[in-house]
Design goal:
By secondary structure, the chain is an alpha+beta fold. Helix content is 28%, strand content 22%. The strands form 5 sheets. Strands 15-14-18-19-20-17-16 form a 7-stranded antiparallel beta sheet. The longest helix has 20 residues. The protein is globular and about 55 Å long. The N terminus and C terminus are likely disordered.
Length: 475
């Protein structure tokens, strides 16, 4: 495995970035989440990102379209909504960050994404219509505008119906099989890059996005995103990626296996406290059996574990084989005996509140109330409550205090999810409601991101209770 220096950023003063809202060095490029490469800059249903004052691109004419507003930012590009001034059709326009435009290899990688998608031409992959540049060096491409949300948002909302999970996975398999047949390996497959839209009467029609770090057959030597950095997102990286080895279609099979594990159990197979620990876990540690964490059909478990084999030769050879195994899984997901056993077991304890985190919530003219937070992420939090809940889509004000924060962080949010006590008992979670943060100021966003990352590092991975029969079966 590569030296840890290859995956550890250089040490310098961390500041709140006005572009992405996170804390990083002044010389480092922005990076959403923990992707070790360029981010997606994907249009999101969560709403547009805050527009910097005097954004020179808003109002600019790009071909037949006029830039209307900012949608989001990634590590490599910034995405805007653009509209045709006459017929009103809408597209998304992704601009390469100006700071990267001077590097020919980065520009080539940016256009590789458009080239890769154009080669594939699959209905479950976001369409790209044009690429060009505005003087002097504002490189961009035009892609279809997606209205929906990511698979990651669906996972955050609670347990995913097995039938929905299988349908989504099969669509991704089909899209990637087509990509692989055209010599394109995605290399950064994760729930954030699976967009779900309403189409053909299906509420979960897949649009696979962000081929910005895809590998094209015949494209020459592998380029890296930055000196000494590995390409990919640590939670979903195959062992050969972690060791900077050869990448092929089976690398995407592994990443989709991680996603299938997450959809089936509600958690990731590996949860290291740091990036090096995560990469080592992918290389050395066997994944837990999904059935030890949730009721999972044996056929689905075998499928997931084969996709997560350390040796690429032991995995499914292609996405078509992976899809065939998924189709053989019973439609209802959990086997009857597993479901019956789950009902007879003592229910797990309700999730404990996040230690040290104090949350005050207020709405309208009502005085603030203090509620226990069960989970905090960069995008929002889940609050435990069993009485009257604020209405869905209600705007609320949230104030957070924690020993690691210099001062109280205040941010506006929106109620996006209710979980009743009955649903909580069935889904093994706390009753209450979820709040999505709404356009935090850069300082607040940076503080929330740092706190969420710290809490995640400090939370040990759950250790499932194992009965003797399960242990005997595994030995």
């Amino acid at each position: 495995m590569g030296d840890a220096r290859h995956i550890t950023p250089t040490t310098e003063e961390l500041v709140a970035c006005e572009r992405c809202g996170e804390r990083h060095g002044r010389t480092e490029s922005c990076s959403p989440s923990r992707t070790l490469a360029f981010g997606s800059g994907l249009p999101s249903a969560a709403g547009p990102a805050p527009v910097p004052p005097g954004d020179p691109l808003v109002g600019t004419q790009v071909g037949s379209f006029r830039i209307a507003r900012l949608l989001g930012r990634g590590g490599m590009g910034t995405v805007y909504l653009a509209e045709h001034p006459v017929i009103g059709s809408r597209v998304a326009v992704k601009f390469l960050h100006e700071s990267m435009a001077a590097d020919p290899s980065v520009v080539a990688r940016f256009f590789d994404e458009a080239r890769a998608v154009n080669l594939i031409g699959h209905e479950n992959i976001v369409g790209i219509f044009d690429l060009s540049a505005l003087p002097p060096n504002r490189y961009y491409f035009v892609m279809e505008y997606l209205e929906g949300d990511t698979l990651q948002a669906l996972l955050r909302a609670g347990p995913v119906d097995p039938a929905v999970a299988r349908d989504v996975l099969l669509q991704v398999c089909d899209a990637l099989q087509c990509a692989h047949e055209h010599g394109v390996v995605h290399r950064d497959l994760k729930p954030e890059n699976v967009f779900l839209v309403q189409r053909r009467g299906k509420p979960h029609f897949v649009k696979l996005v962000d081929f910005g770090i895809a590998k094209l057959r015949g494209a020459g030597a592998q380029r890296r995103t930055a000196a000494g950095f590995v390409v990919g997102t640590p939670e979903y990286m195959a062992p050969e990626q972690c060791e900077e080895g050869a990448v092929d279609a089976r690398t995407d099979v592994y990443a989709l296996g991680v996603m299938a594990f997450e959809l089936a159990t509600g958690r990731l197979p590996f949860q290291g406290k740091s990036i090096p620990q995560l990469l080592l876990a992918h290389v050395r540690e066997p994944p837990p059996r999904p059935s030890e964490l949730a009721p999972v059909d044996p056929a689905l478990e075998r499928t997931i574990l084969r996709a997560l084999e350390k040796d690429p030769a032991a995995r499914f050879p292609d996405m078509a084989s992976f899809a065939e195994a998924l189709r053989a899984v019973p439609a209802q997901g959990a086997a009857p005996d597993a479901a019956a056993a789950a009902r007879t077991k003592t229910p797990p304890p309700s999730p404990a509140p996040v230690a040290g985190l104090a949350v005050e919530l207020s709405a309208g003219d009502r005085p603030p109330v203090r509620l226990p937070a069960v989970e905090l992420t960069r995008a929002g939090l889940f609050l435990r409550a069993e009485g009257e809940l604020p209405p869905l889509r209600a705007r609320v004000r949230v104030a957070l205090s924690h020993p690691s924060l210099r001062s109280k962080v205040e941010v506006e949010g929106e109620v996006i999810r209710h979980v009743s006590p009955a649903e909580a008992a069935s889904w093994r979670m706390a009753p209450g409601f979820a709040v999505q943060f709404h356009e935090p100021a850069p300082e607040a966003r940076a503080a929330l991101a740092a706190l969420a990352d710290e809490l995640r590092r400090d939370t040990p991975a759950p250790v499932p209770a194992r009965d003797p029969a399960a242990l005997e079966d595994r030995l």
